[in-house]
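request received
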Amino acid sequence: MKTCACLLNTTELGGAERSFITQLGILNSPEKFDIYFPKIEGLKASEETLSFVKSNGLDQPKGFKYNSDLYKTSRSSKKVNLINVLLGMLEQVLTYKVEGFLKYKNIWCNGNKVFIPLFLSAIVFGYEGRILWHLRDYPEVGRLNKLIKFLYRYFAKFNLVLIGNSDSTVSAFKDIFTDIKALRIYNPVINENKISPKDSIKVLGFAGMSVPWKGLHELYLWASLYEKELKDLGVEKILVFGKNIYHTKGEHSDYEAQLNRLKKLFKSSLIEHKGLVSPQEIYSSIDLMLHLSNRAEPFGRVILESFSQSIPCISTGLGGAGELMTNNTGLLHFNNDYDGLYQKVRLLIEDASFKNKEVQAGYKTYQFIQESAESDLFKLESLYF
Amino acid sequence: MQNYKVYLTTPDYPPKLGGLSTFSKNVVKVLEELGFLVEVFNWKSPKDLLNLSKENIQADFFFHIHYMGGFLTNFPLDKTINFCHGSEILFTSPNPIKKLIKKLGKAKTLSYFSNSRANFFVSDFTREKLKEKGLQLNYGRDFVYNCSIEGIENSALASTFDSEGVIKLCSVARDVPHKNFDGIYNFSKSLGRLTNRKVQLSITSSRFKSTEKLEVIPLLNKSDSELQQVYQDSHFNLLLSLDHSEKGFFEGFGLTTLEAGHFKTPSIVSCYGGLPENIHHRFNGFVLENFLDSSILKFYDHALNEYSEWSKNAYSHSINSHGLNLYKKLFKAILVEGI
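response:
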């Protein structure tokens, strides 16, 4: 039996899955890892996920049964029957046991959907191995985590290790889970198709989910306010990549409708929507990336991917994203500072030496993060696998 | 601009002094520069709004510097634009009658905001506060647009700050509880004690006494130009406001930091209200985590090494990121191109 079961958190290839698969690819130990994806009734694993796994030199992932009501509670804006959810949780707890996950020495969970029922299963059935809980976001300060902490302290026979994407998230974990080991593993990016450095900046890019905390509304407002100035600088387009792959309830459930209203009030001819495309397509079509998150980001993959392609990135640098901007403090942006954002774009366009300096600094960050990620991963492997 | 007309209501307008008065004047100025015809209604009490005869008022847009101007007058909401500066959006008051009235009117008030054309909040904090009180946030209607003031060209050299001499602080605000003047006084005293240096605090209050290390200079009945000189002469401007939302008060943004910034004087602010969105930590000033000695020492340490950057950025940030040209852009986009 292999040493570790690696559980993807969704059927779709989002940033978290991409990072996880890349990390497993770096470890390059297919003999140690079985990779699984949640198999939900009516939903197939995306072809993109399967081919990305293959391209990282890993064995084909296997599906495991995942209760559809449970899956929908966190990924849909529709109301779900609470009884069904509880029954779903119970079913999932049993499924983990029945499908043999608790026979693995290690189980590495790439998110809460797969972790929470596994955690309960491990408690109920007295699992004595190790669970690596790879949180891809900041932990919530709420009752659920308090319950996890309580159950772990008094009933667990297994070892729990928390993994975070940045020092910032690990620090947040340690504030809540004071007596559980927490490790940082940066998200590496694969830079197989290095794009030639761009001489000029004509196309700006924005890549992120269509949710409020990514700041897309700020981009629309800014593009409208500074349309003339940007065109005078030679900017031809602002390409917006991504969509809302999580149709979840909450503040973002009608965000797209709100953006449509905003666009009627603040018009801009610069913005073009490109939807969900490959990273290769994104970075080959832009000259400058804008990262406008207005909340602490656990990491900021888009920043690192930009840097790896020698594309400068202006970022708010909040949370873990700040750890990627330490060499590029000249490109830090303050939310709602519309003129400040314009001034930074202007400087990058008009001052070639400033731009080159920032590009080199960004590439240095990319190299450092790659090395750190690899070193962290190999350390993890030597400790546990 | 096709002679569009804006009807603007405000509780404060020159010659009355104060931030809201200045803000109103600036909005009118920008609108007129854009070619709008502006009619100003300066109301002194809600009664003035209730008694306003609307039959002869025709306008393309209705601007309300205080939302009450629209809430009590029932002008068409699809043409209504509100400005929210801070704690006026709270449904509470130290006055029990006002508190009751606000609470009874809460649902209607939220509905008013929801149906208006646009709401401009001076900070994310203020917007989130109204969301907390029940507004269904709409990013296509509820915008954050930080304060702007008229630029003052200032060719004077930036102040320097080093490890010797008197540390000069100032604080220009109303002496009301949430402005935390006691905190400012205590901070100044602590700074003197911890650094073993003399501190001078110029403050718009006569309540505080000088001590061995702290010289207090009350700023009473000073003209604008005198206050400008105070900013110019100070190393730091202090705005250490507290969040008294439960009593009906918080700092929405903190306009004095922009005024100080025009004189290359960085500000030290507390971490409450909209202040951390105004002063960007260690860029154009310093955001205190708390008022403990350790935080004050941290501030001092950074200030000794970074002051010239803070001073330079305080000026350029105030001029560029908070100048009236931003309102010009905003109004042009939303009123002309957005029609």
